[in-house]
Write a structure and sequence with these properties.
- The complex is a heterodimer of chains A (125) and B (429).
- With 125 residues, chain A is an alpha+beta fold.
- Chain A has 2 helices and 10 strands.
- The longest helix of chain A has 11 residues.
- Chain A starts with a strand and ends in a 10-residue tail after the last strand.
- Chain B is α/β, with parallel strands linked by helices and 429 residues long.
- Chain B is built from 10 helices and 27 strands.
- In chain B, strands 1, 2, 5, 6, 7, 8 and 19 form a 7-stranded mixed β-sheet that branches. A 5-stranded parallel β-sheet of chain B has the order 10-17-11-12-13. A 5-stranded mixed β-sheet of chain B has the order 22-20-27-24-25.
- In chain B, strand 12, helix 5 and strand 13 form a beta-alpha-beta unit.
- In chain B, helix 1 runs parallel beside helix 7 and helix 4 packs parallel to helix 5.
- Chain B is globular.
- Chains A and B meet through strand 5, strand 6 and helix 2 of A and helix 2, helix 3 and helix 5 of B.
């Protein structure tokens, strides 16, 4: 018997409610999406959910004490909490530029963590 | 000291101020200056380290800091001057502004002013929760600033009152940083923020969110020790016997945003009691000639992209006012919120402008309708235009572009009214 799953698409702020039929570990039918990105999201959400990941790391000698960072692409959902714990231990030195790699290939995911903004050196340092 | 002469003066360098100033320069305004009281431009964006910004404006899924950096670059490329650490002290209807910047008094004469002062969080005082006054109560945005900018974690065990977007985003943020979020309580029967945030910030981390629930007591002498959750009926009255205490050390409030209108008041700008923000026409012009309003100080938006787009219009018309004479005064047509519409912006429409260019009405519904709805525009009592939407939710602003073919009828009306009703009712009428 195919199982019906209800999924809210998080690709954009519209938040479409999608219905997907799942049978034998495969997605057979998807409906309710306003655009085609919903189809890809629903299939991935059922088989291997991913999320964009953002957090911050300590920055030394910068104009601010923290550097916001992001994953270059979405991470597997089960890696979000471990990734955050890993990055709590990370400190970098100013100056940092937008898109600098802060942590390569986090937890073997193949995804780099990059800087989300420029941070200059504090004056006098 | 002689006053500084500028063409367009923008107050505030958040997304609205950056977009308005950039557009004003692109449209030919000579000297465009932004005054920003903070030490860097960007407004609230630098502390919004999550993604979801820029999908419409840049076609990219950006974080808040990335979105701010792009706009700062665009403003710089366009030749906008940003004066940081500069706080406006007074603003006169004659477009004279005085400000304190880096310890010096600055007088400015502007040909046009754009107010882009953003919004504030509704504080505890506005909620009248009984109980003690312990430490450990923060608005969600204050906690966001502490955690994301200052690097200070304000508690270990949190309860969040309200289900606004900042509250949900902070629930995830605190969880990722190793704190516990024990409960979120929303007095309404539905979540007040965006659905995507309910999924990726709350459900992803198994955070309990109780709707039709509020906090009836805060306990603790020096520090918050617990809060009392209580179910409410359909008129928000606590239901006796449903109280339960949740032990926690910190309470976050995510209970709404209010336009920041202190400077608008000083300049005698008229306000709309429904939005709490400036009352504007479709040029984002206020009642004071030469003063324009942009972004969340007009009404609180749900998406930064909409803030930028609307502020670009404000910048465009401010530049026109500075370069040429402002458009002639004319009798404005009131735009009124009808059935299931909480408020609509602009609140006034120029008949002449309505006839010559497209205006956009932005509205928010008062209750969710998870079924197809019709957005209907009436000129006096006759239906001029209707549009179908898949659903309508208070958390998601609706935009309606006025069509040129309706201009004639709109221009002759004494009043326009906009309503949102179920599609089924629309078909019957």
């Amino acid at each position: 018997m195919p199982e019906e799953r209800e999924i809210i698409c998080v690709t954009c702020p519209m938040g479409c409610t999608l219905r997907a039929l799942v049978e034998g570990g495969e997605v057979s039918q998807i409906s309710g999406q306003a655009c085609k990105r919903g189809v890809a999201f629903a299939a991935e959400e059922i088989l291997a959910p991913h999320r964009m990941f953002t957090t911050s790391v300590t920055i030394r000698n910068g104009t601010l004490p923290l550097l916001p960072v992001r994953s270059r692409s979405a991470l597997p959902k089960h890696l979000l909490l471990p990734a955050a714990a890993t990055l709590r231990q990370v400190a970098v030195d100013a100056p940092i530029s937008l898109n600098d790699v802060i942590y390569a290939d986090i937890l073997g995911s193949g995804v780099d963590i990059v800087a989300s903004r420029d941070i200059e050196c504090a004056e006098g340092k | 000291m002689r006053p500084l002469k500028v063409d367009v003066l923008v107050i505030g360098s958040g997304p609205a101020g950056l977009a308005a100033a950039t557009q004003a320069r692109r449209d030919g305004a000579g000297r465009v200056v932004i005054l920003e009281r903070n030490r860097e431009a960007g407004g609230i964006l630098p502390q919004c380290i999550h993604n979801g910004f820029g999908l419409r404006v840049f076609g990219r899924d950006l974080t808040g800091p990335e979105y701010a950096q792009r706009w700062k670059q665009q403003a710089a490329d366009a030749g906008v001057t940003v004066l940081t650490r500069t706080m406006v002290l007074s603003i006169a209807p004659e477009l004279q502004v005085s400000a304190m910047g880096n310890g010096r008094l600055l007088d400015i004469d502007a040909k046009a002013i754009v107010l882009a002062t953003g919004c504030r969080e509704r504080p505890r005082g506005a909620l009248s929760i009984p109980g003690t006054r312990p430490a450990g109560i923060y608005t969600a945005g204050t906690a966001q600033r502490l955690v994301n900018i200052e690097g200070f974690m304000p508690g270990k065990r949190f309860v969040i009152l309200g289900s606004g977007d900042i509250g949900m985003i902070m629930a995830r943020r605190l969880t990722l940083e190793g704190s516990q979020v024990l409960a979120m309580a929303e007095i309404l029967p539905y979540v007040s923020g965006l659905k995507r945030n309910l999924v990726q910030c709350v459900r992803d981390y198994d955070i309990p969110l109780y709707t039709s629930t509020t906090i009836t007591e805060i306990r603790g002498r020096d520090r918050v020790e617990s809060v009392v959750l209580c179910a409410v009926d359909d008129r928000w009255r606590p239901i006796a016997g449903t109280e339960r205490a949740v032990a926690c050390d910190t309470l976050l409030l995510s209970v709404g945003l209010i336009p920041e209108i202190e400077l608008a008041r000083l300049a005698s700008v008229s306000l709309d009691p429904l939005t709490g923000g400036a009352l504007v026409d479709e040029h984002l012009s206020t009642n004071v000639p030469g003063i324009y309003a942009a972004g969340n100080m007009v009404h609180v938006y749900d998406l930064v992209d909409s803030v930028s787009e609307s502020a670009q219009r404000a910048g465009r018309f401010a530049a026109q006012a500075a370069l040429r004479q402002p458009p002639p005064r004319e009798e404005l047509i009131p735009v009124v919120a009808g059935d299931n519409v909480h408020h609509v912006v602009p609140q006034r429409l120029r008949p002449r402008a309505a006839a010559s260019e497209q205006a956009i009405l932005e509205l928010r519904v008062s209750r969710p309708m998870e079924e197809p709805v019709a957005v209907r525009l009436f000129a006096d009592n006759s239906l001029v235009h209707s549009e179908r939407l898949r659903y309508s939710r208070p958390s998601e602003m609706i935009s309606l572009a006025l069509q040129p073919e309706h201009a004639q009828r709109l221009a002759q009306a004494a009043q326009l009214l906009i309503e949102v009703i179920p599609m089924a009712l629309h078909k019957e009428s």
